[in-house]
Amino acid sequence: MTVVIIGAGMAGLSAARALQAAGREVELFDKGRGPGGRMSTRRAETDLGQVAFDHGAQYFTARDPEFAALVSEMVQAGAVAEWQADLVEIDAQGDVRPMRDERRFVGVPGMNGIIRAMAAPLSVQWAKRLVNTSREEGGWRLVFEDGEVRGGFDQLLFAVPAEQAVDLFQTLHPPFASDAAQAVSDPCWALMLAFEERVDTAWDGGRFEVGAISWAARNSSKPGRSPIETWTLHASPEWSKQHLEADPQEVVSPLLAAFGEHARFAPPIHAAAHRWRYAQITRSAQSDSAWNADLQLGMCGDWRIGARVEAAWLSGRDLALRTLCD
């Protein structure tokens, strides 16, 4: 039994690991240039040297026992570490309270560390954009943007964002397109900052209930990072929607000013913005995964469960188990 998975993020890798452990031959293709997706790491050169930012997912938790076991495995491998930082929540009145007491983990040396480690023992090809798919007598046939054609796959699984799934399944399998259309995501502008001196705050990360910023974190406080003072800011969904089509440079000043309401700092030596058009899941699909046994076709992703790294892993595992039970 041969399986092809489109998308090598957390959901796709979760499915692939479960299927490979059960004896299936699995290949993965991802349009990204390397591991990460929304867990990717952005690097930049500054006068003080190279810096790196977790500009998407900031950390993850492990509540499911099997996912916790994977995290422990990755900690032992040096690809994950616990982030023991002073994290707070700041309400509309400006009152500060500690965030929920929970173990939080990050990839090392960047958030994509866990993705890179999970992908290492698997057959993954990066920078492979799928442009056409068809089911033939010999199995699923794939055509990629670079002209390569692959065929003969027994099962085809998609682990892509909901918005991409809607487009992919419009002609391939319309019921899946309708299913994916149930999920709704909010955008998010991310601002990456580097400073010559330490930013003056009493905390390393904060979640804000109101204002232009919903999250700010001292990226350099995470394990395995450069000692250069770096921060990642996430704009609120409302602010991001209002400025969705803005030029990246246009969002730097207002978000920096909003950060200045909560921290004291000298002008940054580096500032860059990145737009996540589909960031936070605000409405998920109706099941952990989708599977059609007649077509040997399935899809999974965090958007089926919720806006957590662990949700992506759970969705991928669920789809793998459904294919194995078929």
List the helices and strands and how they pair.
Layout: E1 2-6, H1 10-21, E2 25-29, E3 41-46, E4 49-54, H2 65-76, E5 80-82, E6 87-90, E7 96-98, E8 105-107, H3 113-119, E9 123-125, E10 130-136, E11 139-144, E12 149-153, E13 155-158, H4 162-172, H5 174-180, E14 184-195, E15 205-208, E16 213-218, E17 229-235, H6 237-242, H7 248-259, E18 270-283, E19 290-292, E20 297-299, H8 309-325
Parallel strand pairs: 1-2, 1-13, 2-9, 6-15, 13-20
Antiparallel strand pairs: 3-4, 5-8, 6-7, 10-11, 11-12, 14-17, 14-18, 15-16, 16-17, 19-20
Helix pairs in contact: 1-8, 4-5
What are the salient characteristics of this protein?
single chain, 326 residues, alpha/beta, FAD/NAD(P)-binding domain, Polyamine Oxidase, Chain A, domain 2, 2 domains, seven-stranded mixed sheet, six-stranded mixed sheet, 20 strands
* Secondary structure category: alpha/beta
Main beta sheet: 7 strands, mixed
Q: How many beta-strand runs?
A: 20
Helix amount: 25-40%
Q: Which segments are poorly predicted (pLDDT under 50) over 5 or more consecutive residues? A: none
Q: Shape, please?
A: globular
Distance between the ends: 12 Å
Following the backbone from N to C, one meets helices and strands in this order, namely EHEEEHEEEEHEEEEEHHEEEEHHEEEH
What is shown here, in short?
By secondary structure, the chain is of the alpha/beta class. It has two domains: 1-34 and 113-182 and 284-326, 3-Layer(bba) Sandwich (FAD/NAD(P)-binding domain); 41-111 and 184-283, Alpha-Beta Complex (Polyamine Oxidase, Chain A, domain 2).
